Amino acid sequence: MKFTEDHEWLKTEGDLVIVGITEHASEQLGDVVFVELPETGTEVSKGDEICVIESVKAASDILAPLDGEIVEINEELADNPGLVNEDPLGKAWFFKMKLADASALEGFMDEAAYKDFIG
Amino acid sequence: MSDLKRTPLYDLHVELGAKMVPFAGYEMPVQYPLGVMKEHLHTRAKAGLFDVSHMGQVIVPGARAAEAFEALVPVSLTGLKEGRQRYAMFTNDEGGILDDLMVANRGDHLFVVVNAACKGTDLAHMRAHLDVVEEITDRALLALQGPAAEGVLEALVPGVAAMRFMDVGIFGWNGAELWVSRSGYTGEDGYEISVPEARAVEFARALLADEAVEPIGLGARDSLRLEAGLCLYGHDIDTTTSPVEGNLAWAIQKARRKRGEREGGFPGAARILSELEDGPSRLRMGLRPEGRAPMREGVEIFASAEGGEPIGRVTSGGFGPSIEAPMAMAYLPAGTQEGTTVYGEVRGKRLPATVVPMPFRPSTYKR
């Protein structure tokens, strides 16, 4: 599993990458009450705001970690946004994307580096 | 956060694991480890303890204090019985609201509680118009709210269970003098308790020792008051909104209205009295957005799904843990009927919302 500085986790599954937010991010957000997901088939560029997470405190965005195409979204989050707090690293994945350049994953932090990053 | 003030309960908040944030010049707990959602639900199910010591506590002494105070508020205070409290607001010459407050008649003086953020200007305003105004700086203020509040407080302070909504009284607790009112800011039954600073932590611990009581932060305080349809000063009401526009006409007694015994005589009376007679042009109303996306402060409201100019703006909004849905307050044209569908523009999309009466959840005051 790889981690971004925007507190997303990335996990490879065949030629796809699954994207979610870290436990640290879900704790910072507080209780999540609404998630808006991108549409499948959307071509995204690194840094695009593609998901919205609303918690009891505020709205935050999830950014596309890399260039690619959204191929699957986690529909369950729309009905049960609380999953983001209950199981951020598992059931609360946000979307799967096909990377334009699979080797681009190399540049992200591993778990040890991410732990240092969040202090 | 070095120039921020701390309440007498600061160390207790930290010990309880609170996340502290700056609020109105104070370091205040926004949430405890339980989290906003569970703190909210706990308050509705059992009892929540809130530190509201940042709010201003003021005494206006004198047999004629009520009469003099009426020059600042559109509320009847000479008609307020001893041992009773009333909601009021300071108005300016344009009829806007300078702050909202609670005023209690305690016999030979008024006891006034004002918002933390307005404390300084409120004191200056009162001092400019009243002979003697004493700020109380050696007392903490706690709120105990929720269905279990009565039983919890009665066990420590016998007699409080007999109070009714908006009663005030002075009680003893282990040698400390408590100033108790049966009121709050959650829509729940409960109490607000002024306690000598030196005894505040001990008193808070005694309340928290009851398993029904959890400490509750500002986050849940906001969602609780929003579900109860209560205004947050600086957001839902301010110097540009009149009490009538703010849907607070209920707080203005007949005696201060046109043809009343003490008609007018407060700042902005011309505008406020005419709005009471003829209706305001806009009014604070409740909105229930469809779906789950919250409409937060600043969201513009439109009459139709496409085109047109905004007809209003959300002043407070969020997710209501007890109603399990988003809710918002907005100023809309006064003729807008309940049940009307309007559209809030959220991230460039117009989402439908229904105009509804407030509170969003029925209040459970002990009247």
From TrEMBL, chain A:
Entry note: cofactor: Binds 1 lipoyl cofactor covalently.
Modified residues (N6-lipoyllysine): 57
This protein's record includes keyword Secreted: no
Pfam family, one: GCV_H
Cofactors named for this entry: (R)-lipoate
Residues in Lipoyl-binding domain copies: 16-98
Keyword presence, Glycoprotein: no
Keywords associated with the record: Lipoyl
Signal sequence residues: none
Protein family membership: Belongs to the GcvH family.
Described purpose of this protein according to its UniProt entry: The glycine cleavage system catalyzes the degradation of glycine. The H protein shuttles the methylamine group of glycine from the P protein to the T protein.
Subunit annotation: The glycine cleavage system is composed of four proteins: P, T, L and H.
Stated name of the protein: Glycine cleavage system H protein
Gene (UniProt): gcvH
TrEMBL record, chain B:
UniProt-listed Pfam families: GCV_T, GCV_T_C
Domain named Aminomethyltransferase C-terminal: residues: 284-360
GCVT N-terminal domain: residues covered: 9-254
Domain of life: Bacteria
Enzyme Commission code: 2.1.2.10
InterPro entries attached to this UniProt entry: GcvT, GcvT/YgfZ/DmdA, GcvT/YgfZ_C, GcvT_C, GCVT_N, TrmE/GcvT-like
UniProt family annotation: Belongs to the GcvT family.
NCBIfam families: gcvT, PRK00389.1, PRK13579.1
The name this protein goes by in its record: aminomethyltransferase
Lineage of origin: Bacteria, Pseudomonadati, Pseudomonadota, Alphaproteobacteria, Rhodobacterales
Gene of this entry: gcvT
